[in-house]
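Reviewer 2 asked us to include a model.

Predict the structure of this chain.
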Amino acid sequence: MNHKLLKVVAMLIIIVLGDTVSTVETCSSNDMEALMSFKKGIQIDTSGRIAKWVGKNCCKWEGIVCENATFRVKEINLPGFISNDEGLFQTQMIGLISPSIVFLTSLEVIDLGGLIGLSGTIPLNIGNHLRNLQKLYLYGNNLTGSIPENIGELKNLQELALHENKLSGSIPLSIGSLKNLKRLLLYSNQLSGKIPNSLKNLKLLVELDVHNNRLTGGIPDKVGEMLSLQKLDLSNNLLIGKVPSSLTNLTAISVLYLDTNYLEGAISFPSRPGEMSCLAFLRLNNNHFAGNIPSNFGYLVSLQRVSLSNNRLEGTLPSNLGNLVSLTELYISENFLSGQIPKSIAKLSQLIMLNISRNLIEGPLPQEMSSLQNLQTLDLSFNRLNLSSIPKWIAKMPSLSRIYFACCRIKGRIPDFLQTTISPIQELDLSANFLSGSIPSWIGRLNQLYMLNLSRNTISSYIPNSFRNLHDLSVLDLHSNRLTGSISSIFDMEQSSFGGSLKFVDLSNNKLSRGIEEIGLRGQCDIQFLNLSHNLLKGKIPNGIGRMNSINSLDLSFNRLGFKLPEVLENLTSLEVLKLQENQLNGNIPNGFLKLIKLKELNLSNNLLEGEIPKGKPLIDFPESCYFGNKGLCGKPLSPCKP
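Predicted model (structure tokens):
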């Protein structure tokens, strides 16, 4: 009997406790009111998550996490990127972020990152209320205004991600009070002013990224006191002055990007082995650094990718360059480096990319370079190499597929050994040399060729029919040679899918005379740039050109083209540049030209055009010079038409 009574009592207790738990599980009135205010500020939510916020138990709402004991809201997780069975996709929220979000005083995590269209400002009193906040993700939105000064009151904050917005103003000095901060991401905003010295107080900071802003002044001298720092990105700002020597104290740093500023002086590297021994990625390009590349550059033994391009560096390359045995990419173009490439470069067995272009490097090339078994891209263009010929060992490098030897004073014919390279050639630039003879037909067998540049030579031949076989070719530049005959091997699509990938074609400044009628006949819809100017082309502009609906720039000037302007040109609505001057075109300018609303540059001068220039933009905005030399043309911007 007592046993049955105990069971009844136990069941009653469970029921009572269940009712109590059910009652407690309902949100506090403050939390509920704050969440509903946030919901009210959102007009569109493509994910549909906000629409499911109904009922009194907000702890069950999607994206909301509550504390187990108090049932206070501690997390808002509504990221813009959501994964499902079909993969990762980005959602959108259009509306304003409600300032009432700060009344969720138990919040530890706010994740509203990547919600395209979420606008408004960071709540001004965020630091006064959310004292438990550990992670604040508001990146990838459309937020404006400044970062509140009281953000430094968020003493528990570990991660602050406000990147990819439209935030302005300066970085608050109070950020230096966030002693627990590990990641500070403010890049791709409109922040200005100086980098605050107070950042030196962030002893636990692992990542500091403020690139792509408008920050000015110098790099704080005390930045070297942030001893936990592993990634520092200050690139693409307006920083000036020298790089502080204290950077060498950052023993944990593996990523250092200071490129695209106005930094000057000599490049400082560790003075002894062991300093900055973890540094793997270094970008100092697009600055005003001068002086030599110091020999202690070789102490950075963990370096994998280095860019020192577009500075004012001079002198020779360090002889101990071979110490950087982990190096995979080296960019030192656009400097004043001289001397020869050191033989020690052969020790860089992991090297994939080497760009030394636009310097004062002299020849000969060390044959030891042929041992770079992993090298895929070699750019030695615009130096003082005086090669005379391409070294034959180039063809024996097992991974080399991108070869740039522009302006290296190479003479004679295009060498036949390039057709038998171990690695299939994908990009070949031999422009601005002294090449003569013909374009060899075997080029059509380079079936992985993506880019071919033979411009500014003295090549005199037809364009081989074998070009029809270059199915992957996207960039073709043969301008400023002595080519003759037809362009049909490029634009005759009947035997080829060539036009499916072709984006850029420049055949200007040659003596080509035939094949204009083939353009657009069976393809080329993806061409974005086409220059056939300064040739001997005859006939009319073909209607097929109207199929090139991706084209941005079309130049057929200085030829012998006649007949009327085809009305299909109005289909080229992406066109920004149209040059047809110095031909024999006649008739009226089609009214459809008014549809070319993106047109920024137009030249129809010195033809036989007549009639009134169609009234309206963009045609009336161009200067008179664009229409000169057409005796029959009238109307704005020329003289009014006679009645």
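Residues 5-24, 493-499 have pLDDT under 50 and may be disordered. The chain is about 5% helix and 25% strand. We have added this to the supplementary material.
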